[in-house]
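Input sequence (527 aa), recorded before submission:
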Amino acid sequence: MLEVKYTKQNILESYLNEIYLGQAGFVSIYGVSEAAHRYFGKTLQELTVQEIAMIAGLIKGPNSYAPTKHPELAKQRRDVVLRRLRETGLLTEEAWNRAVHGPMRVTPSEDVLTDAPYFVDAVLRQVEEAGVVPLPEGLRIDSTLDPMIQQAATESLEKGLAKLEATHPHLNGSLEPMQGAVVVLDPKTGSVLALVGGRDYRRSQFNRAVQAQRQPGSLFKPFVYLAALEAAREGLAGQLTAASLLADEPVTFESENGPWSPQNYDKQFHGPVTLRSALEQSLNVPAVQAAKTLGTKPIVQQLHRLGVTSAIGTDLSSVALGSSSVSLMEITAAYGAVANGGIAVKPTAVRSTRDRQGDIVWNSVPDRQQATSPQGAYVLTSLLEGVIQRGTASKAKVLGLQGKVAGKTGTTDGYRDAWFVGYTSDVVIGVWVGFDDERPLRLTGSQAALPIWMELARRVIPPNVSAFVMPPGVVTRDIDPKTGQLATFQCPEQVSEVFIEGTEPTVYCELHGGGIWERLRHTFGFS
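Predicted structure, token format:
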């Protein structure tokens, strides 16, 4: 199809303008014009024959033949190209002899480079998508990068992956190493503060934070419950509250592939559990039950409003257990919307671009929408605080996490992907760990992703971080966790729970009795 529409010359020109040709520090070099600038400090038109031959020779292995690192190999490769030019008659014997015996002088650009190659790629992609193409000479890009957070993210990922390999020898049995990615966002502005798309940019420029599509697993469960909380606020079918009891028991559903019986990770069933407990322990069966009762359509719509742009299947497994594929960037942004009181802000790596005269070429305008109610977002945040306090991420407290933080682990079927996304009201951090070929990690999100998240969080989140602000329209009630009903003085256990106003329980505990005094106190205002 390309050859029908374009000439060979057009295709070759496009290829030569886009191809990866090595590194200048931590910034990637794309295209022969950029290579001329980075390696020789010249424009393309100023290059000598031997310099052109060296750039052509880089195509086979940009890092293997980089003249800044491997000058002898680069010279050998250059000479291969010069010999072919002579053999095809494009160089005379005299010109070939002069070129092949000429010195190879490399003059790298003295540009100040930042240790954020994946972020730089994301910036350039966003600028191009904004219509600033071709990039004019002297273009100044004002990015959202926080260099200190970027450095912390890079170091945390490198250190964390190395520690996992040292602790779990089975992770080392392949030529392709285990990979990871990190995204740090400001939930209020959508600014990308840091982005690490892989372990070694020189080895692979594939950005696993934005380009990779992986199954999020249990990261989808909070959004199932958020849709049910919103249904309760609106008085719709499938409504639930944080105190609602869900059945964790054997169940079979009909699917396109026949009968399907979801299982929990521990292969056990726990009987009736509150929604809070089900989410804290990341139980599969209650999440599927809730999605079945509510219907998958409102959950998918909720995810899209929160910023998940990938296609999501409408079957129970795709929605409740996260078997649809998403990027780390979009799922981190979805949690950021919850952190931001239900307001979704599209992630951006660029604030503005200016020409060499300082005039604005393009300005970023925040893309915001109220994706869910502030009340629903707050109740879900309270539930996700419980995940860290008592649930699958309680290891964070053992590792020294302080302050008010909410988050969720994610582990996919077959243990192929490990995730953790955690947030405060000011920052949201997403971490993914896995293999590019989707081999099993044989580790959970709390084992593989959470320690990396913790290492970064210790450096980014202050210990005295402020608590999440409760919005109007949220009430607190004491309940009996065995029944999900209002607690009485006879209940052996009472817990304080948050509700969207108007959805709180009104019936006193029927299991343990009592409630008369509580009704009188509520009616007449007794203390």
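Checked by second reader. Residues 109-113 have pLDDT under 50 and may be disordered.
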